């Protein structure tokens, strides 16, 4: 009879440990993809803030690029000790714990991970640049995307709402890694009449299928020329596409996966210890 009671207690212990493991391993995850123009401002969300959560004291933001992770926000505050002064001045945290980046550059491209209590949110930021270069009587417009990892975008040039085909004799297109060129002579009516608003660069995300449209605008006389020059777009408020953890596991933060594995390992070790104790009691 005593042995049966001991066995029943042991089973209850195992059930409690299993439930604890399931509670800790079940982590909510949300992934957003933002594609914005160089020089624009962007607000990266940290999920949905509860009504009873008035402050961001439990919110941390991490920036991951080139296998290097930096903590940008600690307990809701910009951590100026870990990032440069020039970048910290461009960062701020909103009331709902979102991360604001002013005047985005290619240095801001990467994965941003927000951790708030037991919730994790990942945001992958890509930046679009539109440049103009003139060589003799040739004009080349380039639409390129700086990405966190491998290129996840397809890029196409449009004229008057129609895609520019390779067979076009007046407008030549060429593709390279995450960029598309459009070349034409300076005698073309687009250049001679400055009808740049007829040209549009469409950037499509390969995972979310979201299409972002960027209108090319000519440079003013005070702007730089050549490959350093960038142009404005019609994008005023950057939007994003969001997927869940089960839809796309690749972007799930490594440190989140490590924490889950650590919790699971701790539960496993606890189970082994309980089994050994039970065997000693039984013996």
UniProtKB/TrEMBL annotation:
* Residue ranges of every copy of the Ig-like domain listed in the record: 23-126, 135-212
Q: Does the keyword Transmembrane helix apply?
A: yes
Q: Which of UniProt's keywords are assigned here?
A: Membrane, Signal, Transmembrane, Transmembrane helix
InterPro entries membership: Ig-like_dom (IPR007110), Ig-like_dom_sf (IPR036179), Ig-like_fold (IPR013783), Ig_sub (IPR003599), Ig_V-set (IPR013106)
Instruction: Please list which residues make up the signal peptide.
Output: 1-29
Short name of one Pfam family: V-set
Q: Which SUPFAM superfamilies match?
A: Immunoglobulin
According to the lineage, what is the superkingdom?
A: Eukaryota
Q: Which residues cross the membrane?
A: 254-278
PROSITE patterns in alphabetical order = IG_LIKE
Return the SMART domains for the record: IG
> Is Hydrolase included in the keywords of this UniProt record?
no
Protein name per the record? Ig-like domain-containing protein
């Amino acid at each position: 009879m005593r042995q049966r009671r001991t066995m029943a207690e042991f089973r209850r212990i195992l059930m409690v440990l299993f439930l604890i493991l399931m509670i800790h391993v079940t982590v909510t995850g949300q992934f957003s993809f933002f594609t914005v123009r160089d020089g624009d401002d962007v607000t990266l969300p940290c999920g949905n803030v509860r009504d009873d959560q008035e402050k961001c004291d439990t919110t941390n933001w991490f920036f991951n690029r080139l296998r290097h992770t930096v903590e940008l926000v600690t307990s809701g505050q910009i951590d100026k000790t870990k990032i440069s002064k020039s970048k910290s001045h461009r960062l701020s945290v909103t009331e709902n714990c979102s991360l604001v980046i002013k005047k985005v550059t290619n240095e801001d491209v990467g994965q941003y991970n927000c951790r708030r209590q037991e919730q994790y949110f990942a945001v992958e930021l890509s930046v679009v640049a539109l440049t103009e270069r003139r060589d003799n009587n040739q004009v080349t417009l380039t639409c390129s995307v700086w990405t966190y990892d491998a290129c996840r975008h397809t890029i196409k040039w449009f004229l008057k709402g129609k895609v520019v085909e390779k067979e076009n004799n007046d407008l030549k297109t060429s593709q390279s890694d995450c960029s598309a060129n459009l070349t034409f002579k300076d005698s073309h009516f687009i250049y001679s009449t400055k009808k740049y608003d007829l040209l549009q660069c469409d950037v499509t995300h390969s995972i979310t299928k979201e299409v972002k449209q960027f209108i090319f605008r000519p440079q003013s006389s005070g702007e730089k020329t050549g490959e350093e020059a960038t142009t404005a777009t019609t994008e005023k408020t950057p939007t994003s596409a969001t997927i869940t953890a089960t839809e796309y596991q690749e972007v799930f933060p490594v440190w989140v996966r490590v924490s889950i594995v650590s919790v699971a390992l701790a539960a496993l070790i606890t189970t082994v210890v309980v089994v050994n104790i039970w065997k000693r009691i039984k013996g």
